Amino acid sequence: MLSRLARPCFQQAVQSSPRNFLNNAKTWMASKGQSTIAAGAGAAVKEGVAVAAKEAGAVASKDSMASTSRVVGWWMAGCAGMCVGAVVLGGVTRLTESGLSMTDWALLGRPPPRTQEEWDEEFEKYKLSPEFKWKNFDITMNEFKFIWYMEYGHRMWGRTIGAVFFLPAGVMWARGMFNSAVKKRVVLAGSLLMFQGLLGWYMVKSGLDHENFLGPSDVPRVSQYRLAAHLSSAVVLYSVLFWNAKSILKPAIEFDPAKITPQLAKFRKWTVSSKALAFFTLVSGAFVAG
Q1: For 92-128, what is each residue's pLDDT tens digit?
Q2: Cβ neighbours of residue 12 closer than 8 Å, sequence gap 6 or more
Q3: Using CA atoms, how far apart are residues 213 and 216, in angstroms rounded to an integer?
Q4: Cys-Cys crosslink for 192: which of 87, 154, 237, 290, Cβ 3.0 to 4.6 Å?
């Protein structure tokens, strides 16, 4: 059976001598071969251009972060460290069962009570909470002051993080210290920070609603699901700030994909899996702590 490639040559051979047949066949094969090579070269060039563009984009992104002022990096690193402090304070607040001592919330906060009359007023508001009704009905004023200051310190630390983040961010943005890549990351971190604050109050509200503690075995405390969400959000916020700070202060080494060995790829998978397990272990503490 004649192939599609040989059929044109055979048709020419019917009308020509054997020598012409061979010459025509060579000419036809050469022309087809050149067109095939040209098409393959064109595809290779397109693929090479796409890979080069991708690598150029990655290098440009890396250079834009590396060229950012180190002041920006240290500022983000400081905010990341303050997030760690907030998580520690939140854990202490949980373990001392202080989280429901403040029954109201203000965006910018307020000063603590200064006179005995102000403390009495604060104590009266606490007496209306489910925690006092079902658990701390015999608490003294000094004991109340302790748990109130624990919760107050945790909240004010969160507001301090907001001030340390947003005020310098506004100044550095106005001075042009952020390029387009850094601006996107600053907006992301700022959004996470505001969400974290709102989520904290949403969590506390679950422990102030009398309708949530009508059962004979119900214990007044915040929802463990909202607590887990609050903790998860704090970990994500810390990760974003720390990752950006490191990208500016000490950019990661770029590896040639062709030189990555199977052992190195496997090690990377194990590293990512370890981080995921650490995150899961940390968040699971919200369901068993306190």
Answers
A1: 998 899 999 999 988 888 999 999 999 999 999 999 9
A2: 20, 21, 24, 25
A3: 8
A4: 237
Give residue 20's pLDDT: 57
b/e code 16-43 from CB counts within 10 Å (16+ = b): eeeeebeeebeeeeeeeeeeeeeeeeee
Model pTM?
Answer: 0.74
pLDDT for position 220: 87
Tokens standing for residue 212: 């949530």
Q: Which of 227, 192, 225, 285 has its CA nearest to residue 100? A: 227
Please give the average per-residue pLDDT across 12-24, as a whole number.
51
Question: Dihedral (C-alpha) 259, 61, 279, 158: value to the nearest 10 degrees?
Answer: 160
Cα 12 to Cα 47: distance, rounded to the nearest angstrom? 39
Residues 6+ apart with CB under 8 A from 273: none
C-alpha 62/C-alpha 266 separation (Å) is 25
What does the buried/exposed string (b/e) look like for 239-256 if buried means 16 or more CB atoms within 10 Å of the residue's CB?
A: ebbbebbbbbbeeeeeee
CB 99 within 8 A of CB 151: yes
Mean pLDDT over each residue of the chain, to the nearest integer? 82
Q: Cβ contacts of residue 229 below 8 Å, gap of 6+?
A: 199, 203
Of 165, 202, 171, whose CA–CA distance to 187 is shortest? 165
Residue 257 host element (H or E):
none
| Cβ count near 12 (within 10 Å) | 14
**Cα separation of 242 and 77, whole Å?**
6
As a whole number of angstroms, the distance between CA 204 and CA 61 comes to 41
